[in-house]
Design goal:
Length: 156
């Protein structure tokens, strides 16, 4: 069920219905001697805050991280598939932080160039993995589904 459907259904529940649910639960908890219902526990707090827009370096790092995660999953879970790649997740994270903390633009540009190169390499790894996965014949139905799921994630 999509998340927005669940949220829409929860919003459709009236205050009276929540009250009835609460009273029924407390009644059951009292009869089973689980809870007395004297205190209410609230698990969430809503705080107004400004959400910052993602930076280019964050988006590049996130792309490298996600593609590397999918490639690692494909390499480990699909037996018989041989594709090689370098996992640049940690290095790209360091570059992202270096860009964020750079004091001079020349240092920032140097880090950006390296991060962009890592992102380009990761895209090449994904493209070559897609070609290999296209020719992969899975031994079981489950592996076929996993192969399709990994290809779909990489194409997305």
């Amino acid at each position: 069920m999509p998340n927005h459907t669940l949220n829409a259904n929860i919003k459709a529940i009236t205050a009276g219905t929540w009250e009835t649910i609460y009273r029924t639960l407390i009644g059951y908890a009292k009869t089973e001697d689980i809870e007395h219902g004297r205190k209410a526990r609230i698990d969430c707090t809503v705080v107004e805050t400004n959400v910052h827009r993602p930076t280019d370096s964050e988006l590049l790092w996130d792309g490298v991280r996600v593609v590397a995660r999918v490639l690692n999953r494909g390499r480990s879970e699909l037996s018989g598939v041989k594709f090689s790649f370098m996992d640049h997740s940690c290095r790209s994270k360091r570059r992202r932080l270096a860009i964020l903390n750079a004091k001079h633009s020349d240092q920032r540009q140097k880090e950006y160039k390296d991060l962009i190169k890592m992102a380009e390499n990761t895209v090449c790894y994904a493209e070559s993995a897609l070609q290999i996965l296209a020719g992969y014949t899975a031994p079981t139905f489950e592996r076929t589904l996993l192969n399709l799921a990994i290809k779909q994630e990489l194409e997305h």
